[in-house]
Design a protein that fits this description.
This is Stage 0 sporulation protein A homolog. Helices cover 42% and strands 20% of the residues. The protein is an alpha/beta fold. The two termini are 31 Å apart.
């Protein structure tokens, strides 16, 4: 079931969109905290975003740009500010389509369905893992922190993925090595130690000190 996130500060319009989209057997939710749009996006993991331009605190162009730093999720702008300048700005900031208000709900839904088909017919959905501002994009195998991408090896990426999937829990060294073997990566106890040390160094250099902690006699964890 596809999930749609609605970023619209007019609650009447937002609720109308949410309820209508749900009648098509999709999931839909509205952003509630316009200071934390990116956090709500990461938590909800939508397959498509409907984004207004005029919003409290930061406008839709800002949030589109922030989302594009970590995700290729389809974004449709919905706005009454439908002059050429705003339409061009929406597209250059990473938008996929623009619908002018007022709009027909049937037309909007047709555009939503068409964009979902084009995006996901041959591509798996994006999966994001976030902790303390660091965002791991599983689909793109990238790690982003404070707008900077941190280059990781295949093993480093997989180790971080395993730890973030078990955030707050200690993961044994044996479990990590087993997971890495499943990806055809040769790794033994010494190799794991070296990989974790290198991963920690990269995280610390990026400003993520003590991101991975050692649980003596068990393994590693992020807290």
């Amino acid at each position: 079931m596809y999930k749609v996130l609605i970023i619209e500060d007019d609650f009447t319009i937002g609720n109308t969109l949410r309820n209508y989209i749900r009648t098509w057997a999709y999931e839909a939710e509205c952003v509630t905290d316009f200071k934390e749009v990116l956090s709500e996006f990461i938590a909800y993991k939508p397959d498509l975003i409907l984004l207004d331009i005029s919003l409290p605190f930061y406008n839709g162009f800002h949030w589109c740009s922030e989302i594009r730093k970590i995700s290729k999720v389809p974004i449709i702008f919905i706005s009454s500010a439908a002059d050429n300048m705003n339409i061009v700005m929406a597209m250059t900031q990473g938008g996929d389509d623009f619908i002018a208000k007022p709009f027909d709900l049937n037309v909007l839904m047709a555009k939503v369905q068409a964009l979902l088909r084009r995006t996901y017919d041959f591509v798996n959905e994006t999966n994001l893992l976030e902790h303390n501002g660091a965002i791991l994009n599983i689909s793109e195998a990238t790690l982003t922190y404070k707008d900077e991408k941190i280059e990781l090896t295949k093993n480093e990426f997989k180790i971080l993925e395993i730890l973030l999937e078990n955030k707050g829990k200690a993961v044994s060294r044996d479990s990590i090595m087993t997971k890495l073997w499943e990806t055809d990566s040769f790794i033994d106890d010494n190799t794991l130690t070296v990989n974790v040390a290198r991963l920690r160094k990269k995280l610390e250099d990026a400003g993520l000190k003590d991101f991975i902690t050692t649980k003596k006699g068990i393994g590693y964890m992020v807290v």
